[in-house]
Design goal:
Elements (H helix, E strand, L loop, with lengths): L11 H11 L9 H14 L8 H8 L3 H9 L5 H15 L6 E10 L9 E5 L4 E15 L2 E9 L3 H4 L2 H6 L11 H14 L6 E3 L2 H4 L2 H9 L5 E4 L4 E2 L6 E2 L13 E2 L7 E2 H7 L1 H4 L4 E8 L2 E12 L14 E8 L8 E6 L7 H8 L2 H15 L9 H30 L1
Parallel strand pairs: 1-5
Antiparallel strand pairs: 1-3, 2-3, 3-4, 6-14, 7-10, 8-9, 11-12, 12-13, 13-14
Helix pairs in contact: 1-2, 1-15, 2-3, 2-15, 3-4, 4-15, 5-15, 14-15
Length: about 400
C-alpha cells in the first residue's frame, strides 16, 4: 500500500508513546526543566492547532511564549547528540534487507530577510523563484516503515559571503555554503557512522546530475540508483585515450581522446541513436502495486562510462543506465533516466523498486509539513531552526512507529 495513514494526532496513546520515546533522550538535556520542554514542544507539534510555532505551542501548553523560544534557540541542550541517538535507535530497531536511503530537499516560503538562509531562490513549494529557505533531508525506508533521519539548512552563497549577517542569525563560522549534494553526502556519512545500513540509496535528478556525487557514493561502496537529467552525459563504451602531446609539444598532465574518438553524449540521445539502446526492445516490469492498481513501466538498460574526475578519462568500471517509460501514461510520453552502480548480477527488479521509492520521502515531508509544522518556524536563530526541524522529525518517527504497530495488529 503506497500511502501511509498517520494515526489520529489527538490520541492519548500518542502522547504516552512520545513521552516514552523522549525518556531515551534525557541524556541530551542537562536538567529536568529542559526535559520537560522536550515534552511540551513535541506535544505541541502533534497537537491540533494548525500553526506549530513557538507562540502557538506555548499558548497550548499554558507556559510563557518566551520560555519556549528560549528552549528552542538558546537553552543548553545537545541537539546533535539527539540526532545521532535517533539514528542509532533506527539502526538497531528497524534493520533488515531492502533498506533504502532517500535524499530530497524541500522549501518553506518566508517573509522578510531575517530567517537563516532566506533569500529569493527556487522554491519547490511555490514552483517558482520566491523568498524562501531550502532544507536538505535524508529519509530511511524499509518494508512498510519510513521516516526522516537527518535535516540541514542549505546556506546560499550570498549568506556565506556576509559573515556579519550569519553572526546576527547565530550561524556558526563552520557552517558555510556547500552544494546540496555535499550536504546530502555529509548526512549519508553521519547516518552510516551511526550504524544505519542502506542497501540502496536513491535521489532525484538534481543530485544524480552531479557526477562527482555519484563517484563519491561509489567510492564508499554504496549501491545507488538515482534519476539523472536527460542531458546527463556519458559514453556507451570506453573511448581510446592518449597521453601524447599535441602539436605544441607540451607535456600533458591528463589524457585526451585519440583523434577520431567521440566525446560523451546525452542519455536522451543514447536512447534515440545508440544501437545499445535504440535497437533494444522494451521490457515491461511491474514496479509495485498501489491503491490505484499496478504501476507498470517499460525498461531498457545498457552500461555507460562516466569520467573518473571532471574533464578526466572515463572510469574503468561502468555504471548501468536504466531508461524507464511509463506504460500507463496515455496523455504524453513519460521517460525517466536512472543511473546505478549495482553490478550486473543484481536483478533489475530490486533496483527499480528502490529507484521508484522517492514517494516515501515526499510523503514524509508532506506529513511533517501538514501535521507537525515542519515549516512553521518563525524565529531568526539558526540553532532554533535546526532544533525545530529535528524535533519535527523525532515526532514523526514516533507517529510512524505507532502506525507500524497498528498496521501489524490489523494484519494479524
Amino acid at each position: 500500500m503506497e500511502d501511509t495513514i498517520m494515526v489520529s494526532t489527538d490520541s492519548s496513546q500518542i502522547r504516552t508513546d512520545l513521552n516514552r520515546l523522549l525518556r531515551r533522550f534525557e541524556s541530551c538535556a542537562p536538567d529536568q526543566n529542559t526535559r520537560n520542554y522536550f515534552r511540551i514542544y513535541t506535544a505541541g507539534l502533534i497537537s491540533n492547532p494548525s500553526r506549530k510555532n513557538c507562540e502557538a505551542i506555548a499558548l497550548s501548553a499554558g507556559v510563557p511564549v518566551r520560555s519556549v523560544q528560549w528552549f528552542l534557540a538558546e537553552q543548553n541542550w545537545d541537539h546533535e547528540t539527539m540526532r545521532n541517538k535517533l539514528q542509532k535507535i533506527i539502526a538497531k530497531e528497524h534493520t533488515g534487507k531492502h533498506s533504502v536511503g532517500i535524499i530530497d530537499e524541500t522549501s518553506f516560503l518566508k517573509k522578510g530577510t531575517k530567517t537563516p538562509g532566506v533569500q529569493r531562490q527556487y522554491c519547490g513549494t511555490a514552483g517558482k523563484q520566491d523568498n524562501c529557505i531550502v532544507t536538505v533531508h535524508l529519509a530511511y525506508a524499509i518494508d512498510n516503515f519510513h521516516t526522516l533521519i537527518d535535516q540541514d539548512l542549505f546556506l546560499p552563497e550570498a549568506w556565506d559571503q556576509d559573515r556579519e549577517r550569519c553572526q546576527a542569525a547565530g550561524i556558526p563560522d563552520e557552517v558555510v555554503y556547500r552544494p546540496k549534494w555535499k550536504i546530502a553526502l555529509e548526512q549519508y556519512d553521519r547516518a552510516t557512522k551511526n550504524g544505519i545500513v542502506f542497501e540502496w540509496l536513491t535521489f532525484d535528478e538534481h543530485y544524480g546530475g552531479k557526477p562527482e556525487f555519484l563517484r563519491q557514493l561509489d567510492a564508499r561502496n554504496q549501491w545507488f540508483i538515482g534519476e539523472v537529467p536527460s542531458s546527463f552525459c556519458a559514453w556507451t563504451k570506453p573511448p581510446r585515450m592518449t597521453m601524447k602531446s599535441g602539436k605544441q609539444g607540451r607535456k600533458r598532465t591528463k589524457p585526451r581522446l585519440v583523434k577520431g574518438e567521440r566525446g560523451t553524449i546525452e542519455v536522451q540521445n543514447m536512447l534515440k541513436y545508440s544501437p545499445a539502446l535504440r535497437d533494444q526492445p522494451w521490457t515491461k516490469y511491474c514496479i509495485k502495486e498501489s491503491d490505484k492498481g499496478l504501476v507498470i513501466w517499460e525498461i531498457k538498460e545498457c552500461p555507460i562510462f562516466i569520467r573518473s574526475e571532471p574533464k578526466g578519462a572515463p572510469r574503468d568500471q561502468s555504471f548501468r543506465l536504466i531508461v524507464a517509460r511509463n506504460v500507463l501514461n496515455e496523455v504524453e510520453e513519460e521517460i525517466k533516466y536512472f543511473v546505478s552502480n549495482a553490478p550486473p548480477e543484481v536483478v533489475i527488479d530490486d533496483a527499480l523498486l528502490a529507484g521508484f521509492s522517492r514517494w516515501r520521502v515526499e510523503r514524509s515531508l508532506q506529513d511533517t509539513k501538514q501535521k507537525l509544522g515542519l515549516g512553521d518556524y518563525e524565529g531568526r536563530c539558526y540553532t532554533g531552526l535546526i532544533r525545530h526541524l529535528l524535533l519535527s522529525s523525532l515526532s514523526y518517527y514516533c507517529l510512524q512507529k505507532q502506525w507500524l504497530a497498528l498496521s501489524k495488529k490489523t494484519r494479524s
